[in-house]
Amino acid sequence: MLKHNVQAVLDSYYAEALTAAESGFMAYFHELSAPFLLSVSQAYLDAPLRVMFIGKETNGWCGKLRAFYERPDGIAIAKTRYEDQQARGTGNSEFLRQWKRFADAFAGGNRAAVCWNNLMKMDWHRPKRGYSRTSIGHSAHLFDFSVAAVHFEIELLKPDLIIFGCGHKYDRALKAVLPERQAVKVEPKALWHFRSNGIECFRTFHPDAWDCHAPRTIRQYYQEIIDTASKVFAERLPMQKGSA
User: Fold this and answer.
1) Which residues lie across from 199 on neighbouring strands?
2) Are 178 and 169 within 8 A, CB to CB?
3) DSSP state of 32
4) With 0-12 CB in 10 A as exposed, 13-18 as middle and 19+ as buried, what is 168?
5) What are the tens digits of pLDDT across the range 4-47?
6) What domain of life (predicted)?
7) How confident is the model at residue 242 (pLDDT cuts 50, 70, 90)?
8) What does the pLDDT look like over 115-155, one tens digit per residue?
């Protein structure tokens, strides 16, 4: 699969879906961010193991939704923002550090080969909430738009392994994206290992969540995911080792 061809399908979907959703978003132009749109890498498409790492939503992303809709090149700008993030360091973000650990474990250290995604396509800015821009409870319109988009992205990009770093409070969105599931292991509210249409899936805490909210350190849950997935896909990754 060539990046150009896959991205063209994705861009067409984004354009149509965002146009159809615009009227429903107008009342929220001032409080929602620009949409989180994927720029697919050839490294991901060529990877022996396609890995998608899904968070909750961004905390500030590429400006406001109003500006996005006002610009004819909004989709191109959103994709450039995504590409820029891949070239940046991880900074103080434990989420971005975990993205790197997955790249080290499954993609020879190439972060661009691990597709980063989010369950909610826009974040919700409320000044009194400070840093948190949690948006799963914003509106049915945003929820439905996001679920449909992530479902389409998964169907198109065909990941072999999905790690949901979103916490159990986002399970209703996860279940809407992947309605067919077979549980493998469940540690209530902490770690959920399941399969969906041939995809190996894990859900655990967001990497930036506080350890005091978890029975074990959150880093341990992610290491268990790496170790388990490395065994499941050992034939595809004979030279790979789990990250420290």
Assistant:
1) 196
2) no
3) B
4) middle
5) 999 999 999 999 999 999 999 999 999 999 999 999 999 999 99
6) Bacteria
7) very low
8) 999 999 999 998 777 667 899 999 999 999 999 999 999 99
Q: Residue with structure tokens 């969105």?
A: 173
Please name the residues in contact with 51: beta carbons below 8 A apart, sequence gap of 6 or more: 102, 106, 107, 113, 114, 115, 159, 160, 161, 162, 163
Strands in the chain per DSSP E: 51-55, 114-118, 161-165, 182-187, 191-196, 199-204
Token pair listed for 87: 């070239």
Does the CA dihedral 124-125-128-130 come out positive or negative? Answer: positive
Cα-Cα-Cα-Cα torsion 59, 61, 64, 69, nearest 10 degrees, comes to -140
Residues 6 or more apart whose Cβ sits within 8 Å of residue 108: 240
Q: What is the pTM of this model?
A: 0.94
Q: Please choose, from the candidates 62, 51, 56, 69, the residue with its C-alpha nearest in 3D space to the C-alpha of residue 162.
A: 51
> Which domains are present in the chain?
3-232 (3.40.470)
Amino acid found at 153:
E
**With bands split at pLDDT 50, 70 and 90, how would you rate the model's confidence at 243?**
very low
**For residue 8, what are the CA distances in angstroms to 4, 15, 17, 24?**
6, 11, 14, 25
